[in-house]
Design a protein that fits this description.
Number of helices: 10
Distance between the termini: 31 Å
């Protein structure tokens, strides 16, 4: 059995589509668990739970995504978990491709492929296109060369037996879970066809909040596990190769701005984590423009 877990927080306008897109996938013997702390989101999910017996809702305590995942996994009936969010939606055939690599018993988790919904015709939309394209290419390369990489928190599948109890202070649970799969002696796979559609930030302030949360989270994981999965040095490699994503002069200048923004981002992360010693609650902030 497959347990599909959707974690959400104040997403009544998007949770319905997230559920409906899962229903369009041709899966058998599965359940959908929606977990959220707010009644607005849960009330929308209840519409589907009344219509379909395999849709269940859980009210978490609002302590963050790691705590919500711990709750949902404990309640899950399946031996294979698919994890996604309430503000994104999967493609109509994404989930079938996502679970196929588990035919290999050495595969412990499989990452989906985030695709930006933002228009490429503005700066932040172009940044989203470039960063998602780079992430996909790096996963494909790592898979080919049998190197370590990490799953995307927007969509991935994992054997339930490999899911660790998550510390509630985690900023990037996807990296922590991915590292645990490797520790248990299993490999990760990447499904390019398992598309999950994501709206990325449309303001620079929200862009910094989101990227600080994810990139800072990997710095946090490095301190917990001594495994470096992301760093400014790693993300700076192959700078000239990024020109392949540029199609006009304006995009060239946006690419330069992206590099400068990444420098600024890593300086902010270093300040907040190493100097100001900010906590998980201080760093994790809701990104409104992605809803």
């Amino acid at each position: 059995m497959i347990s599909i877990i959707i974690t959400a927080y104040k997403e009544p306008s998007t949770i319905g589509k997230a559920i409906e897109q899962i229903l369009k996938n041709n899966l058998t013997d599965y359940e959908i668990l929606v977990t959220a702390p707010d009644n607005e989101t849960l009330n929308v999910a209840k519409i589907y739970s009344k219509r379909y017996q395999f849709v269940r809702i859980l009210k978490d305590e609002g302590k963050g995504k790691p705590a919500a995942l711990n709750l949902a996994v404990n309640s899950a009936r399946g031996d294979l978990l698919i994890l996604t969010d309430g503000d994104v939606y999967v493609g109509g055939d994404s989930l079938g491709f996502l679970i196929k690599p588990f035919e290999n018993p050495k595969i412990g988790a499989v990452s989906g492929n985030p695709v930006s919904l933002n228009s490429r015709k503005n700066r932040l939309g172009f940044w989203a296109y470039v960063l998602t394209s780079i992430a996909s290419k790096r996963r494909l390369t790592a898979l080919k060369l049998k190197r370590r990489f990490f799953c995307s928190g927007y969509l991935f599948a994992i054997k339930k037996s490999l899911f660790p109890k998550l510390p509630e202070e985690l900023l990037s649970e996807d990296g922590f879970i991915s590292n645990n799969v490797y520790k248990k002696g299993y490999n990760l796979s990447y499904s390019l066809k398992s598309k999950v559609y994501v709206k990325y930030p449309t303001t620079f302030d929200d862009w910094v909040i989101q990227k600080k949360r994810s990139a800072g989270g990997y710095n946090q994981i490095r301190k917990m596990t001594s495994v470096e999965m992301r760093s400014f040095k790693k993300e700076s490699l192959g700078g000239f190769s990024l020109l392949r994503y540029v199609s006009n002069t304006l995009e060239f200048f946006w690419l330069i701005e992206l590099f400068l923004a990444r420098v600024y981002l890593w300086l902010v992360i270093y300040r907040d984590i190493n100097i100001n010693k900010k906590s998980h609650k201080e760093i994790w902030k809701r990104v409104e423009t992605t809803k």
